[in-house]
Design goal:
Largest sheet of chain A: 7 strands, mixed
Shape of chain B: globular
Number of helices of chain B: 10
Largest interface: A-B, 43 and 39 residues
CATH class of chain B: Alpha Beta
Strand content of chain A: 15-25%
Distance between the termini of chain B: 18 Å
Largest sheet of chain B: 8 strands, mixed
Oligomer: heterodimer
Number of domains of chain B: 1
Order of helices and strands of chain B: HEEHEHHEEEHEHEHHEEHH
CATH superfamily of chain B: Thiamin diphosphate (ThDP)-binding fold, Pyr/PP domains
Radius of gyration of chain B: 18 Å
Structural class of chain A: alpha/beta
Distance between the termini of chain A: 43 Å
Structural class of chain B: alpha/beta
Order of helices and strands of chain A: EHEHEHEHHEHEHEEHHHEEHEEHEHEHE
CATH topology of chain B: Rossmann fold
Helix content of chain B: 25-40%
Number of strands of chain A: 15
CATH architecture of the largest domain in chain A: 3-Layer(aba) Sandwich
Number of helices of chain A: 14
């Protein structure tokens, strides 16, 4: 079953698109995403992948063209980073409004510099796209394949981002198991659009068009349906993650969150992306020293797994949230969502906020040990001067 | 090369619903009606922000994307997507306003032309952002009053030249570029049919007078469109493969621009000197086109 290769994260992303047999790729370079579309260009050029490969003149076009291809009835993929993702903002709303299941890889790059943080994806928080975060190259490949199945599920039909930290994953080589094409084919069936733009389906298209426009319906209905689809996506993500685990031997927590050594602990550190990988080492060390602190990795940012966070919050005395992003004037975006998820609990854990890794600032095991130890102090009821900290 | 086709040869079947939201006398709606009839059932229409959606109630499958600047990319995606699902037979076209073509959509237009995407880009040029109430675009004729180039103590209307977008598109070396007018339907239909017979990037830029924005009686749309062509304000030509240039309407002598300009409210404030300035520009441009007629564009 499958074979192993040592590859960088960006190549794993390209393999995901290839194994998903994408029919349309729109490409534009931006560091650190660039090599994703370079690998795909090679695959198309040498006949390994049979896809329309469009070299666009900018990311806005990449997104709009992917929208068009998906509308026409083709499985569409694109990839970008940082400012490129910002440039896509406008058509991203159109893609979700049309309910076109475009899949996009985001190789994180800060919007305030070249190095990674999650500010690029967080700037697209409200575009009605699913957002799945990865922590290693293997997970990028696996999540990429799953992303198509989730996005195209009739219960979801929303575009989906799968993301990984730039540089840390994009250019770091790791051993990756590449599943056999036949196995992926039986897991991910060919894309069948509900309303392909075909003359024989003019009537159906017209109804879809009217729905996109909101004619003759509650003007809020489109937003409501997208919110309903996000709710449904929680179930679909869990199902797809389980099926993937059964078929390929790998799954990521329950698909929404991954708990690491969370049994019999008083507190958890919660993080997203590669920081959560580093955090494992810190948690291993602390637990071997008898400290009762675990790790929760947020795998799905959108939909946000509020129920899971609540369930964990019920058992914990404190949660330390690491945000590789900030919404200035408000705070960490993950922190805000975590706190909001906990609100309805009768006994809420303490919550602590840690800004770390913004614009690529290094986050070491030592840093995370400090974060975890501070969270434990809060769990023990210690009065802390400041629950917000810049690491 | 296109050949004029009599209006009567176009089928009776109406693709555009008679009930639509276009203004009285809207040339854009006429463009939409004629184009859809000529292209027929086996076509897909793409639309971005402009007046177009007002007359988009169409029997072809269609898509409107709220991406004003994205016409070129949207059509690219549809065309490539249909190719991938084995339906290259379907004509992918868009009826796009002048703003979505010459201003905000210009980058995507150039890119789609450069890639020679298999699409038909129809522009209905009403010379301003009419859907938002008539703000100037780079397709607006000099001295025209628009809501962003009003007449006032310090303003005489639009200051800048009209951008020669059909020539710019032709320089991409695409299979077909043409100008047309709603007032010359035989010429327009001939060009549409010729474009339909080709593959690759095709661009037809149609003059579409707008009673609401140009401030004239809605019954005069066709009359004004015709007078624009006869005065050389909107020359009719086609360019094949970015090279072979041909005027498809070539009067012995152009009519003066004064009458047609003065028949529109947007030019009523112009002085003799200003009219002369426009006249000189039009005459000079026309002379240059006549020199090229039947030969190479450059």
């Amino acid at each position: 079953m499958g074979h192993w290769e040592v590859m960088v994260g960006n190549k794993a992303v390209a393999y995901a698109a290839k194994l998903a047999r994408v029919q349309f790729i729109s490409a534009f370079p931006i560091t650190p995403q660039t090599t994703v579309v370079e690998y795909l260009a090679e695959m198309v050029a040498n006949g390994e992948l049979d896809a329309e490969y469009v070299t666009c003149e900018g990311e806005l076009t990449c997104q709009t063209a992917a929208l068009g291809a998906s509308a026409a009835g083709a499985r569409a993929f694109t990839a970008t980073s940082g400012p490129g993702l910002l440039y896509m903002h406008h058509p991203m709303h159109a893609t979700s409004n049309g309910r076109f299941p475009v899949v996009m890889a985001v190789i994180h790059r800060s919007v305030k510099g070249m190095q990674p943080d999650h500010s690029d994806m967080m700037s697209q928080r409200d575009t009605s796209w699913l957002m799945l975060e990865c922590a290693n190259a293997q997970e990028l490949l696996d999540t990429g394949i799953m992303a198509f199945k989730i996005a195209e599920d009739p219960r979801v039909r929303l575009p989906t981002i799968f993301a990984g930290d730039g540089y840390i994953l994009s250019y770091t080589a790791e051993p990756v198991e590449i599943p056999d094409q036949e196995e992926v084919d039986s897991f991910l069936l060919p894309y069948k659009s509900t309303y392909p733009l075909l003359p024989e389906l003019a009537e159906e298209n017209r109804n879809h068009q009217l729905a996109m426009w909101g004619f003759g319906q509650d003007p809020q209905l489109r937003w409501k349906l997208q919110q309903d689809a996000m709710d449904a996506a929680k179930t679909v993500i869990k199902e797809v993650n389980e099926e993937y685990r059964k078929r390929f031997g790998r799954g990521y927590g329950n698909g929404l969150i991954e708990e690491y050594k969370c049994d019999d602990v008083d507190a958890v550190v919660l993080a997203m992306g590669t920081i959560a990988s580093t955090a494992r080492t810190a948690i291993d060390q602390l637990q071997s020293e008898g400290k009762k602190v675990g790790l929760v990795r947020l795998k799905s940012f959108k939909p946000f797994p509020a129920e899971e966070i609540m369930r964990i919050g019920e058992k914990m005395k404190a949660i330390g949230v690491i945000d590789r992003n900030i919404s200035c004037g408000n705070g960490g975006i993950v922190f805000e969502s975590v706190r909001s998820s906990l609100y309805d609990l009768d006994a809420r854990p303490k919550t602590l906020e840690f800004y770390a890794g913004l614009v690529g600032k290094e986050v070491t095991v030592k840093d995370i040990r400090k974060i975890a130890e501070k969270t434990l102090r809060a769990a023990k009821g210690e009065k802390l001067d400041n629950i917000v900290e810049w690491v | 090369m296109s050949k004029p086709v009599p209006l009567l040869k176009v089928g009776d079947y109406e693709y555009i619903e008679r009930a639509n939201q276009a203004c009285q006398g809207c040339a854009g709606a006429i463009v939409s009606r004629i184009v859809s009839k000529v292209l027929g059932a086996n076509a897909v229409r793409a639309e971005v922000a402009c007046c177009g959606p007002a007359f988009m109630n169409i029997k072809n499958p269609s898509i409107y994307a709220e991406v004003f600047e994205g016409a070129g990319a949207l059509m690219t995606g549809i065309s490539r997507g249909l190719k991938k699902i084995g339906r290259e037979d379907v004509v992918v076209y868009g009826i796009i306003g002048d703003g979505g073509t010459v201003d905000i959509g210009f980058q995507g237009l150039s890119a789609a032309a450069e890639r020679n995407e298999n699409i038909l880009w129809i522009v209905y040029d009403n010379e301003a952002y009419m859907n938002t109430g008539g703000q100037r675009s780079s397709a607006t004729t000099p001295y025209a009053i628009t809501t962003t180039t009003p007449q006032g103590k310090f303003s005489r209307g639009k200051k800048e030249q009209k951008k020669s977008v059909p020539l710019m598109v032709a320089l991409h070396g695409v299979p077909y570029v043409a100008t047309a007018s709603v007032s010359y339907p035989e010429d327009l239909i001939g060009k549409l049919e010729y474009a339909k017979s080709l593959k690759g990037f095709r661009f037809i830029h149609i003059s579409a007078p707008c009673p609401t924005g140009w401030n004239y009686d809605p019954k005069d749309t066709i009359k004004i469109g015709r007078a624009m062509v006869q005065a050389g304000l909107w020359p009719l030509f086609e360019i094949i493969d970015g090279e072979k240039f041909r005027l498809t309407y070539k009067p012995k002598e152009l009519k003066p621009v004064r009458e047609v300009l003065k028949s529109q409210g947007r030019f009523r404030h112009t002085t003799d000197e200003e009219i002369n300035e426009i006249q000189q520009q039009v005459t000079r441009f026309w002379e240059r086109l006549v020199q090229k007629d039947g030969g190479s564009l450059f």
